[in-house]
Design goal:
Blueprint: E1 4-5, E2 13-14, E3 60-62, E4 69-71, E5 90-92, H1 95-103, E6 115-117, E7 120-121, E8 146-153, H2 162-170, E9 179-186, H3 191-207, E10 214-220, E11 223-224, E12 230-234, E13 241-244, H4 246-254, H5 258-263, E14 266-272, H6 276-279, H7 281-293, E15 298-302, H8 313-325, H9 330-339, H10 342-347, E16 350-357, E17 360-370, E18 393-398, E19 401-406, E20 414-417, E21 424-431, E22 434-441
Parallel strand pairs: 2-11, 8-9, 8-10, 10-14, 14-15
Antiparallel strand pairs: 1-3, 3-4, 5-6, 6-7, 12-13, 15-16, 16-17, 17-22, 18-19, 19-20, 21-22
Helix pairs in contact: 2-8, 4-7, 8-9
Length: 454
C-alpha cells in the first residue's frame, strides 16, 4: 500500500580585561541517566509542490525512494483508480526522483506516472500535476528533528533578536514535533561559575529526549576590541566584564552539548559577535582551532567592528529555509543566502568556515561590492581624510579598476581599488553596480604557545 499521512544594545563589541580560566580536568559532562532516543522522522511533513500539509479527505503520499511527499490536491488521481493505489504492492515515486533519474541518466525520458506496482505504472496514462513546483528539484521540505540552542552572555539584551525570529519561522514546519529551541545564559568568569553553567547545560541536555538530526548553536556575545577575546561574564560580584581566548570560551560553552553535536548529521555554529574575533589574527587562529576541535559542519562569523546582529536576520532566515528546511548543503546555499542580504553586506563581511579534513578548514570570505559605496568590497571614506571634504570623490572605472580622486584641487587625495585576486563574482543578489564576491582564505588555525594552558 502507498504510504500516506496528514499534517498541518545593538552592537556586540567593547573592552574587557583578559582572565585565564582554569579548565576542569575534563569538560565533558557525565551522563546521569540514559537519554531516550525517539524514532527519527523519515518523511517530510509538507508537499514538495505546494509546500502545504493535508487534512480531511486529502492525503500526503510518501515517496518510496526519498523523504519527499506530494499531496493529493496537486495530483489528478483518476477517480476510477483511487482504490488501486491502496493495495500493499503499490509504491509511489515523487516528481523530484523521477526528474532526477532522467537528469542523471538512470532513466530515459518518459511520462510521469507516480504510482507503480512491481515497477510498472498503475494507471494507463500519465499522472497530471496541477501546480508549478515552488522549490527546486534538489530540495525538500524537511521536518527532520532540529535543536536550536542560543547561548547568550549574561545581561546581554537580545530582545527582538534574529535567533528568536528565525526559530519562530521554523516552528510551523514541525507540526508533529521534532523542533526545540532553548536559550541558555552564561556567566563563566571563574571556576565556580563554569561548574554552575555546565551543570545547568547538562540538565537541559538530559531534558532533550530526542535524537536530533540537525543542531544549530548561536552565540550572542561581545568581543574585546583590542585582542578579539570573547566576553565570558563577571569574574566576581562586581559587574565588570572579563574576557578569554575564543578556544577556551568555546570549549567551556560547547562541551556540555558535544554529545548532541556529535550525534547530529549536521551541526552549525553562528557567532553573533563583533569583528575583532576575526580581524585580529591570533583571535581568528584560536577560533579556527576551536571549529576544528568541536567538529561543526560549518561556522559563520562576521567582521564588522561594531557588529549588530539584527542586520544578519535575512541571512539567518535564508539559512533556515535553504539549509534546514530544503536540506541544501551550506556551501551550495551560501551564495543565495548572502544574495538575500545586501543590507548586511553594507554592514559587514561574512565568513564561512567548513572543515574539509580532521585537521583542516576551508574558509570563504563573502563581501558585498558597490562601485561607489564599497568598491570591490573595500570601504571608501565618507569624507576625504586629508582635507575633510564630503561628497568629495570623482571616480573613473577602467577595466574593473576603480579610481577615486578628491575633487578639492588643493588636495587630490587618491584611492585605487582592484578586484581581489582569486575572487569570484556571485550571481545571486546581483544588481546594477553591486554584487557579492567570494574569496578563498588561507586557514591559520592554532593557539599561541604562551596560551596553550588558557
Amino acid at each position: 500500500m502507498v504510504k500516506s499521512k496528514q499534517t498541518c544594545k545593538k552592537s556586540t563589541g567593547g573592552t574587557a580585561p583578559r582572565v585565564t580560566l582554569e579548565l576542569p580536568v575534563t569538560t565533558a559532562v557525565p551522563v546521569v541517566q540514559e537519554v531516550e532516543i525517539s524514532k527519527p522522522f523519515t518523511h517530510n511533513e509538507f508537499c514538495l509542490v505546494c509546500r502545504d500539509g493535508c487534512i480531511d479527505h486529502d492525503r500526503l503520499f510518501l515517496c518510496s525512494t526519498c523523504p519527499r511527499v506530494m499531496c493529493s490536491r496537486c495530483m489528478e488521481i483518476p477517480s476510477t483508480g483511487a482504490d488501486a493505489i491502496d493495495t500493499d504492492d503499490v509504491t509511489f515515486v515523487c516528481i523530484s526522483c523521477h526528474v532526477g533519474g532522467e537528469r542523471h541518466g538512470r532513466n530515459s525520458y518518459s511520462p510521469y506516472f507516480g504510482f507503480y506496482r512491481r515497477d510498472k505504472p498503475v494507471f494507463s496514462s500519465f499522472l497530471p500535476i496541477h501546480a508549478t513546483l515552488e522549490v527546486s528539484f534538489k530540495s525538500q521540505l524537511s521536518s527532520a528533528p532540529i535543536l536550536v540552542v542560543h547561548l547568550v552572555l549574561v545581561d546581554h539584551d537580545t530582545a527582538g533578536g534574529c535567533v528568536e525570529l528565525a526559530s519562530d519561522f521554523l516552528r510551523p514546519y514541525f507540526p508533529a514535533g521534532g523542533f526545540e529551541f532553548r536559550t541558555v545564559t552564561f556567566d563563566i568568569g571563574n571556576s565556580s561559575k563554569i561548574a554552575k553553567y555546565q551543570a545547568k547545560a547538562s540538565t537541559v541536555v538530559q531534558e532533550l529526549k530526542s535524537n536530533w538530526t540537525r543542531v544549530v548553536v548561536a552565540m550572542t556575545n561581545h568581543t574585546d576590541n583590542d585582542d578579539g577575546d570573547l566576553f565570558i561574564g563577571y569574574e566576581g560580584k562586581k559587574k565588570t566584564y572579563v574576557s578569554a581566548r575564543a578556544h577556551t570560551v568555546l570549549e567551556i560553552l560547547l562541551s556540555p552539548w558535544q554529545s548532541v553535536i556529535d550525534g547530529a548529521e549536521e551541526s552549525y555554529l553562528w557567532l553573533f559577535a563583533c569583528g575583532a574575533l576575526i580581524n585580529k589574527p591570533i583571535a581568528f587562529g584560536c577560533l579556527q582551532q576551536a571549529v576544528i576541535n568541536h567538529h561543526m559542519t560549518a561556522t559563520i562569523g562576521f567582521n564588522a567592528v561594531r557588529f549588530q546582529p539584527s542586520f544578519a536576520t535575512h541571512l539567518l532566515l535564508a539559512f533556515m529555509e535553504l539549509v534546514i528546511i530544503k536540506r541544501l548543503p551550506i556551501r551550495v546555499a551560501f551564495p543565495e543566502m548572502v544574495g538575500q542580504s545586501y543590507k548586511l553586506g553594507r554592514h559587514s563581511n561574512v565568513f564561512l568556515l567548513v572543515p574539509v579534513a580532521p585537521d583542516s578548514l576551508a574558509i570563504k570570505k563573502y563581501s558585498w561590492t558597490h562601485h561607489e559605496l564599497r568598491p570591490w568590497g573595500q570601504y571608501l571614506p565618507v569624507q576625504c581624510p586629508d582635507c575633510g571634504w564630503t561628497n568629495a570623490w570623482r571616480t573613473v572605472n577602467t577595466n574593473k579598476n576603480y579610481s577615486f580622486e578628491c575633487k578639492n584641487r588643493q588636495c587630490r587625495k587618491e584611492y585605487l581599488f582592484s578586484q581581489p585576486a582569486g575572487s569570484r563574482i556571485l550571481l545571486p543578489g546581483r544588481r546594477p553596480g553591486a554584487c557579492w564576491i567570494s574569496i578563498d582564505l588561507k586557514p591559520t588555525p592554532g593557539i599561541p604557545d604562551d596560551m596553550l594552558v588558557s
